[in-house]
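dumping this here so i dont lose it
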C-alpha cells in the first residue's frame, strides 16, 4: 500500500495555424510536475473542501511571434471534462485562465468569440471549444508579439484522497494560434 500519489500535469504542447506569414507559439513549460504528493495532504485538503486537493494553481507564459502583424486568437484543444474545464485523468479536471496579455508591448484585452456582450476583459477563462481573440485598446487587434499569462487550476475529486495505489494524473492537449490578416 502506497502513501503517495504521483501528480504530473503533462500539459500543453503548442502549435500554430498561421495564414500566409509564419507565426510561432511557445509555452514556458510543456509539463507541470507536482511531484509525489502525500495522500495525507490530499485527504486533509479534501476534508477542508479545498478545491484542487493539495494542488496549487500554477502560472505559465504563452508567447506568439509573427513575422508581420496579424489578428491573433487562442484556443486549447484537449479532452473535455465539462463546459468550463478540461479532463485531468483519471478523474480530475483543469481550468485554464488567460490573463495579463500584451500585444507588441501594450496592454491587450480578450474577447470571447460567440459572446454577444463584446466585453473586453483583462482575464478570461479558456473553455473547451472556445476561441479567444486578443485586442488592443480601441478595438485594434493586429500585432506581431503576444505575451499571455496562463493560470492552470487543477482539481482532484474527493475520491483521489482515498486511493491506496500510486496514481499518475495527466492532462493532454494542444494550444492553437489563429493568426489572420487584419480585416480579412
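and the seq i came up w/
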Amino acid at each position: 500500500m502506497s502513501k503517495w500519489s504521483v501528480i504530473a500535469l503533462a500539459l500543453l504542447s503548442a502549435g500554430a495555424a498561421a495564414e500566409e506569414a509564419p507565426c510561432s507559439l511557445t509555452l514556458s513549460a510543456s509539463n507541470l510536475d507536482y511531484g509525489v504528493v502525500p495522500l495525507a495532504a490530499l485527504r486533509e485538503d479534501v476534508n477542508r473542501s479545498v478545491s484542487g486537493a493539495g494542488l496549487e494553481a500554477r502560472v505559465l507564459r504563452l508567447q506568439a511571434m509573427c513575422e508581420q502583424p496579424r489578428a491573433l486568437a487562442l484556443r486549447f484543444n484537449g479532452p473535455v471534462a465539462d463546459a468550463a474545464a478540461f479532463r485531468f485523468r483519471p478523474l480530475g479536471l483543469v481550468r485554464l485562465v488567460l490573463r495579463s496579455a500584451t500585444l507588441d508591448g501594450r496592454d491587450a484585452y480578450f474577447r470571447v468569440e460567440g459572446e454577444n456582450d463584446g466585453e473586453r476583459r483583462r482575464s478570461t477563462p479558456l473553455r473547451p471549444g472556445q476561441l479567444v481573440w486578443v485586442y488592443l485598446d480601441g478595438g485594434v487587434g493586429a500585432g506581431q508579439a503576444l505575451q499571455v499569462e496562463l493560470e492552470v487550476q487543477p482539481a482532484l475529486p474527493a475520491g483521489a484522497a482515498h486511493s491506496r495505489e500510486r496514481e499518475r494524473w495527466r492532462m493532454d492537449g494542444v494550444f492553437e494560434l489563429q493568426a489572420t490578416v487584419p480585416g480579412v
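The CA atoms of residues 73 and 133 lie 4 Å apart.
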